[in-house]
Write a structure and sequence with these properties.
This protein is of the alpha/beta class and 223 residues long. The protein contains eleven helices and five strands. The structure holds cytidine-5'-monophosphate (C5P).
Amino acid sequence: MKPVVAIDGHAGSGKGTMARMLASYLGFAHLDSGGLYRIAAYMQLNLSQFQGSPPENLVSLLSKMSMQDLLEMQRQISEDVLRSDIMSIAASSMSKLPEVRNVITKFIREFAADPGRNFLGSVIDGRDIGSVAVPNAVCKIFLTAEPQIRAKRRFKTLKAKNSSVTFEEICQNIIARDQQDSSRDTAPLTLNDDYIIINTSNETIEESFEKIVKIICDSVINR
Ligand code: C5P
């Protein structure tokens, strides 16, 4: 299997940005596994055949879809809708359901097993990549930062897009998701000894990036 780098961590810790930077630098494919939970949440909330129906119906459709179908679906949904705070909380709620996790974990494993001919490996970000989905990842990073700092970063991004959301709302959303992601029964956000923790509270993204590249190189060399 081609090497997999797992970037797990807290909501708003910059996992997505970091994973994209690493993938581009290493010549690896990138998968944002949270995006898959967001698509599932979007489908449940917005497609008329699933509104008000039990999630089993959605799971049954998802299990017949390919990763390509799912990514095609993603292309049809606006990024702002998919990344909205409502969808974040909805994705976090969907991700508590074991049936939903099973089907999405299957997609993640397929991607890890075959990231594409042009890629040397993959970088996958999420909550349970190193702990459950791909436990044999060559390198497992846990990205975090103080909740207030994560909220401040998100507030800055949203303000730049003229959003009217308040700092307090963002803070509450981040704290609620941390709590929901860490306390669920199935595949909670957990830290075991395999992980290297990177706390970005007092670092720029470039500083954390340099640290992580060094860690990945060491892990691959010592494999
Ligand atoms: O990473 P992102 O914030 O887009 O993820 C949205 C939600 O999907 C998270 O709050 C989490 O509940 C869920 N998720 C998960 N397992 C993953 C990735 C995301 O449970 N591997």
